């Protein structure tokens, strides 16, 4: 009886080793994926990971395909933003895991959008979340906020896999787990027997790794079924800046599409016009309407603002540490959008030492110099 038991155990172990070997063969990109995420590539043979893949591989293949259908217009933009900010393009799979690229995704804990931000975290990373605008649903703004958050987590924890763990279970929970473990080693933190991080976080990491291995393999694969999936990744939309105060009805006329089509592409816009406190909002438009938009969208010019506000001077302001577009505008009693237009700023972000030209009326200029 004892011998029979050992035979069963040996068969199970042999089957697991065989599956692990096949796993490395099926996903030859595993080494690249794991190295990009600071994970030892030998994790491909980890029994818990092998068991996870064996159980969920077919399910997540379907999830991957369905996510591509929903996110085909976001993926090129996400990838470009990540790479231009020094992050691995594999973080696209973090967003895929979080939301499945469902634009309206909202969790039971009220996390929302493609990157599943809680409202407090979103505001901490400069997203507008109020009754009129919720930039968690803005693909570009939320991705830029996610990159700031990811970089902040990396600065704190120093490993990309720790960034993903913290993103899921929270910074405090992860810090306590590391303290209990006495190490930051991936294999120790992921060991189910030690229960250092929540089970859902362990599965979350495994899911991202598996989806990334799938995605990287499909990109390089010549199989007909993989080619069919690759064809889903197309860039059918582009993003443009729209200034505060723009009426949505005027915007859709400039784009040349219907209001329902615009609202479907831009779920983060919930008001009849771009609110004044939004400064600049990036909206999605069909890529083939970009030329039409540029020809017909006419934001206010500095000359028009000068005439309306009786401005006659431009004053140079050197941005100091901690100053924002809003605080600089408040110092000079002008609207933030006026600074954006006067300086042709591509975003609302300012950096210390940057020179910002501020439009002022003659009366305001004299009052300021009289102090």
Model description:
The termini are far apart. The chain has 3 domains: 2-230, Lysozyme (Orthogonal Bundle); 237-296, no CATH class; 302-370, Roll (Membrane-bound Lytic Murein Transglycosylase D, Chain A). Helix 3 packs across helix 11 (199-220). With 371 residues, it is mostly helical. The chain has 19 helices and 4 strands. Residues 1-18 have low confidence and may be disordered. It has a two-stranded antiparallel sheet with strand order 1-2. Strands 3-4 form a two-stranded antiparallel ribbon.
List keywords for this structure.
two-stranded antiparallel ribbon, Lysozyme, 4 strands, globular, two-stranded antiparallel sheet, mainly alpha, 3 domains, single chain, Membrane-bound Lytic Murein Transglycosylase D, Chain A, 19 helices, 371 residues, disordered N terminus
What's the gist of this structure?
The chain contains 19 helices and four strands. It is mainly α and 371 residues long.
CATH 2nd-level architecture of the largest domain = Orthogonal Bundle
CATH topology of the largest domain: Lysozyme
What is the rounded Rg? 25 Å
Give a count of the beta strands, DSSP E runs of length 2 or more. 4
Distance between the termini: 97 Å
**Helix percentage range:** 55-70%
Shape: globular
Largest sheet: 2 strands, antiparallel
Question: What is the beta-strand fraction?
Answer: 5-15%
Q: Which spans of ≥5 residues are poorly predicted at pLDDT below 50?
A: 1-18
Strand order of the largest sheet: 1-2
What is the total domain count?
A: 3
What's the average pLDDT?
81
How many DSSP H or I helices?
19
CATH C-level name of the largest domain: Mainly Alpha
User: What order do the helices and strands follow?
Assistant: HHHHHHHHHHHHEHHEHHEHHEH
Look at the helices and sheets and give the structural class.
mainly alpha
